[in-house]
Every structure is written in C-alpha cells, then in structure tokens.
Amino acid sequence: MTETPAKRSRAGHGDDSIYWDKSKNRYIGAVSLGYTPSGSRRRPKVSGKTKTEVRQKLRELRKELARGARAPASYTVAQAVNDWLAQGLKGKEASSIGTYRSLADNHVIPHLGAAKLKDLEADDVDEWLEGRAEVLATRSLRMVRSILRRSIAHAQRRGRAVQNVADLVELPEGRPGRPSKSLSLEQGEAVLRAMEGTWIHAYVVLSLLVGVRPEEARALTWTHVHFTEPGEGKPHVDVWRSVRRHGDTKTHRSRRSLAMPRQVALVMKAHKARQQADFRTANKEWVEDGLVFPTKTGNRRDATDVRRNFRELLRAAGFENPGKWTTRELRTSFVSLLSDHGIPIEVIARLVGHSGSVTTERVYRKQLRPVISDGAEAMDDIFGDDETEDEETEDEEEVSERG
Fold first, then answer.
1. Same domain for 154 and 81
2. Do 324 and 222 have their domain in common?
3. Is 335 a domain residue?
4. 392 pLDDT more than 50
5. Are residues 314 and 215 in the same domain?
6. Where are the alpha helices (DSSP H) in 243-302?
7. Are 325 and 314 spatial neighbours (Cβ–Cβ below 8 Å)?
8. Which of 32, 52, 69 marks a domain boundary?
9. More confident position, 136 or 361
C-alpha cells in the first residue's frame, strides 16, 4: 500500500522531522542540531521512497551522530593530516611521502589546520579549494584535496570524525599546468655536444636518442646494457626496471628492449670504461649489476640531483634559461624529433612503451607536420616512382629494427 504524503509539521529543537518533497518525489528526514560556529544551521538530511525507509535512515543517522559525539572535540584538521602522514602512508616511497608532506605543509595546514574537524563544513572546503585554484594546477589541486579526504577518512577509522566533508565538494579548475617543451634539432645537437666525457652527458644521450623515462634511466644497471660485435645484431638496452615501488616499470608495455643508435652505443661504452677506471683508482670492485649512473657513493641518484646536473649541461650548451627545462622533456623531445622526421606515430608509441598511440599523440608529440600534408604524402606513396618507394622501404625497415 502506497503511503499518502502528509502535511509537513514543524519539529522541535533536536527532534526529527519527516516531510514530502514534491520536487524530488521523495520523503525527506531531517535532524536539527542547532547552529555551527559560523552561524549556519546544522540539519543533516536523509531521503527515501516511504516514511518507513526514512525513519530507518534517521535511526542510523542518530547512531552515527552518537558515535561522533565521542570523537575528540578539540581534534583539528592539522592533527588529522599529520596523523595520516605518519600512519597512513606505510610502504610508500620516500619521495612520494615527501611530496605529500610538502603539499600538506604549504596548502592544507596553513589554511585549514586550525579548524576543529567536527566543525569543518563543505562550504569551508569549497572556499579553500577556490583559493588554492588560483595558485595550483588542476593536478596539484586534486592532490591536496586527496590529502584532506584521506586524512579525514583515516580519522573516521579511528573514531575521530563522523562525516568526510571532502567527499561532498566538486574540484574546481586549477591553473593551466606548465606545458611540456621539446628540443629543436639545433638545440638537440648542442645538448649532445655539451659536457662530453661526463656521466650526465651519457645520461642525456641515452635519454634523448633512445627515449627512456627518467625513472628508468636512474634504475638502469650494466647487466641490461648490451654491446654486440659486428654481425651479432644491434647494441641494445633492456628497459626492464625503474625507481618505482618494487622496481616495476610504469606499465607492462613499458618493459621493452630498445636498440641503441651508433652514437649512443659509443658514448655508453666510453662511459662504462671511465666508470671502471674510476673504480680501479678508488680500489673498489666494479660489478656488472652495478648502476649505470650511480652517485659517488654508489647509490641511486634522486630526481633532484639528475635535474640539477642536467641544467648545468644545458647552461654549458648555451641555453639562456636552463631552469625552465626538466629531464622528462628529453623524452618529449625524442618523440617530437622522430615525428618531425616522419616516423609513424604507432612506431613511436612502441618505442616509448605506450599501450597505444593516443597518449603519444596528445601528450608527447610537440612538433607535428601539418595535418593537411597527410593527403599529399599518401599520394606520393601511391603514385611515387620506384626510387622513392625503395628509399622509404629502407627507412621503415630501419625503424622496425629499432622497435
């Protein structure tokens, strides 16, 4: 039997009220909890198709509120965030923890830290996110909201919070992120000549001409660098590891073996010989499974150290603003230069370890031939003379061998 919507009655302070909302075609149940410190009314609501369903939801809401009443009244957002950073990131890489800590210290705690968690409202979070959207890119904005949301969830599991208000807000659009750049052919030539005979030169040559990710280059060992004799195939590098958690590459498709151009093989072989000589001079044992780009103490280099050395190389190469470049843009340049040379995007996607060409097309390829030329090039292929076809077939075979 369908319940007949009843006339709405006024509920006393602290009482539950149930009324019919014609616009939603549902019963609404509300609990009056007085007013917040900001002066707005606290009146959590539930809804249902029948009064019986709403009454059950109100009982559950009352139980939840009772549990919340036992939560520490003075527990602040700053305490919740710090507790999550200390206890909720077990097993995470130190670099990831450092990133979360930096974002929390600069964008969460200074603005919301003093607020009591029990008094924090969705409006407060909305206002905070709108303010941060003026100084943060959308990706960073998403991360700081995640810090707040996960910190409150951590507090909920320990009985220190009832409702996670960070789940109730929409993420605004942040500032546009810094667009990736790629080296021009002239810049690439200058970079390949700079600081020859150093480890950072070898690192740059490998990254720019083979397309490995920074996280893959930092984890590379000599076991995975193969120099072959003439007639035995091409020198190649096995990109099977990274500095990510457990040493895995970014995706399964990222685990690949890549041929090294002649210039890369020569530079890497010379780098290996220098490293072996340095070990002998220091009376240290050189091992085949050692890192290709270690620190002076033999440890893995962190991203900051590589970036600092890379910018020194750019300065030596004559760049006016080396601080505006990052190591990941060597990989962007690899994609762009191949694309500018006419290599098919599907082939480039395989070289960089993408599962398809969409990411390569949208994110990495910065130098594109005008789309309007595609038709003309296709007709040249169809009606071109034999000499042109033979040359292009040789190019495709060479790319296939590299793949």
1. yes
2. yes
3. no
4. no
5. yes
6. 262-281
7. yes
8. 69
9. 136
331 is catalytic: yes
Q: Which tens digits make up the pLDDT trace of 306-350?
A: 999 999 999 999 999 999 898 888 888 877 777 666 665 566 566
- The answer to whether residue 19 is catalytic is no
Do 46 and 118 lie in one domain? The reply is no
| 213 given a catalytic annotation | yes
Residue 354 is among the residues annotated as catalytic for this protein: yes
- Based on the residue annotation, tell me whether 27 is a catalytic residue of this protein: no
Q: Which of these, 6, 23, 14, lies nearest to 66 by C-alpha position? A: 14
- Asked, for residue 180, whether it belongs to a domain, the answer is no
Q: Are strands 16-21 and 26-31 parallel, antiparallel or unpaired?
A: antiparallel
DSSP designation for 356: S
* Domain tally, the chain: 4
User: pLDDT tens across 111-168, in order?
Assistant: 999 999 988 888 899 899 999 998 888 888 999 999 999 999 999 888 888 888 898 8
User: Do 99 and 218 have their domain in common?
Assistant: no
Q: Is the pLDDT of residue 394 over 60?
A: no
Catalytic site residue from 218, 241, 311, 331: 331
Contact yes or no for 115/81 (Cβ under 8 A): no
Instruction: Please tell me which residue in 364, 365, 366, 402 is annotated as part of the active site.
Output: 364
Range of the domain at 83: 77-168
The answer as to whether 358 is a domain residue is no
